[in-house]
C-alpha cells in the first residue's frame, strides 16, 4: 500500500511525517484472516500493533467458557497498542468477523516510530483519549432506555466505519449477541429493538451479503441523542 493511501485510510497517520510513514510501511507485515479466525489470543504478550485495512473484527474478553464482546472495529482502526505501551499480557483476544486484511508493525518498531515523529505521538495520544471518552460515554448510557443505548451503538459504528450507499449507511451485519454485549443490554431486548427498527424502516438487514443498512440515520441519531 502506498503511504498516501495508508494515511488517508488511517486517521492515526493523517498528521504523520511522510518519510516516517514510508519507513513504517517498509517494515510492516501483511495478514489475511477468514471469518471466525482468532487474530490475537488472550494472555499473549503484545508483540505488534495491527491496522485494519479491510473487514471487521471483534474484541472480546474470556471468562471460563463465556466470552463477552467489548468492541467492534472496522476499516481504518487499529488494535494491540495497549499491551505494547504498558508491556503487559493482553487482557482480551480479537476475532475476525468477516474476511479481514491487516497490516502489523512490531512493538519495537512501532515505539521507535512514535519517538521519531512527535506529530504521530501526539495523534496517538489524541486517539487514545477519544477511546477513553467513548468508554466513559458508554458507562453513562447504562441508565438510558435500551433502545437509546442500541441506537447509540449503531450510530457510532456508522460514524466510525460506515460506507454511504444508495440503500443507506452500510455496516457489517453484526450478530445480535455481539450487539447486545457492546451495548450492555440483553440479547432478547436487542432482538426486539432490532425488529422494531426494521419494521419502522430505519434499518434493513441483508444477511446473504453480511450487510446492515442504516436507512434512516437521522432518526437513529435522534433516538441515540435522546436523554430522557
Automatic annotation (TrEMBL):
Query: What SMART domains does this protein's entry cite?
Result: cNMP
Top-level lineage group: Bacteria
State the signal peptide span: none
Cross-referenced Pfam families, in alphabetical order? cNMP_binding
Q: Which residues form the Cyclic nucleotide-binding domain?
A: 12-131
Q: Which GO terms describe its cellular component?
A: cytosol
> What are the GO MF terms of this UniProt record?
DNA-binding transcription factor activity
Question: What is the name listed in the Swiss-Prot or TrEMBL entry for this protein?
Answer: Crp/Fnr family transcriptional regulator
Taxonomic lineage? Bacteria, Bacillati, Cyanobacteriota, Cyanophyceae, Oscillatoriophycideae
